[in-house]
Design goal:
176 residues, alpha+beta, four-stranded mixed sheet
Length: 176
C-alpha cells in the first residue's frame, strides 16, 4: 500500500529531473554561501550543474504528454520501433527523412517519414514515448524548443518539425 496518491506520484514522476536538479542546485548554493575555504568553489560548480539539470528537466517534463496510450515505443541503438494494436514498424534514426507532429487525432501522433517506406505513426502517449525526446535531439539540426512549442498548441494541421536535407516531401496520411 502506498502513502502517495497515484495522481501525485504521476506528477512527481513527470517532474523528477526538475526536482533532482533543484536539490542539487540547493546543495550547491548551501555549500557556496554557507561555507568557507575551497567549498564555495565546489558549491558554485555544483549549483551550475543543478541549474543545468533543472533546465534539461523542464524540457523533458514539457515533452511528456502522458502514458497508457495505445502501443509501446522502444528506442534501441539508433532504431525507433513502435508496436501498436493496429499498426507498427521500425525506422533507423539515420534513415528518418522527416518528423511531423499531427495532433488532429485522438491521441496525437508523431509521424516519422523515411524514403521508400510508409510513414510510421507513433501516438504521443504510447508507453515509452518519452524515449523519443533523446532520439529526436540526436537528429542534425533538430530544434527542441520548436517541438515543445508545437506540443503546446493543438490544431487540425500537421506541423512539420524537422526535415533531413535532400528529403523529398513526405505524405501526411492520417492513421485513423
Amino acid at each position: 500500500m502506498s502513502l502517495i496518491r497515484p495522481e501525485a506520484r504521476a506528477t512527481l514522476w513527470r517532474w523528477r529531473e526538475v526536482l533532482a536538479g533543484a536539490a542539487v542546485l540547493g546543495l550547491g548554493l548551501w555549500w557556496g554561501i554557507g561555507t568557507s575555504g575551497i567549498l564555495p568553489w565546489i558549491g558554485g560548480v555544483v549549483a551550475l550543474a543543478g541549474a543545468a539539470l533543472v533546465l534539461a528537466g523542464l524540457q523533458r517534463a514539457r515533452f511528456r504528454t502522458g502514458s497508457g496510450g495505445p502501443g509501446v515505443v522502444q528506442v534501441d541503438e539508433g532504431r525507433i520501433a513502435y508496436f501498436g494494436p493496429l499498426t507498427g514498424g521500425a525506422v533507423a534514426l539515420s534513415e528518418i527523412g522527416a518528423v511531423t507532429l499531427d495532433q488532429s487525432g485522438r491521441p496525437g501522433h508523431w509521424v516519422l517519414s523515411q524514403p521508400g517506406q510508409p510513414d510510421l505513426h507513433v501516438p504521443l502517449n504510447a508507453e515509452g514515448a518519452e524515449a523519443l525526446f533523446d532520439a529526436f535531439a540526436a537528429l542534425p539540426g533538430f530544434r527542441t524548443e520548436r517541438m515543445l512549442s508545437a506540443l503546446r498548441q493543438r490544431g487540425p494541421q500537421a506541423v512539420p518539425l524537422w526535415r533531413r536535407a535532400g528529403h523529398a516531401g513526405a505524405s501526411i496520411a492520417r492513421l485513423h
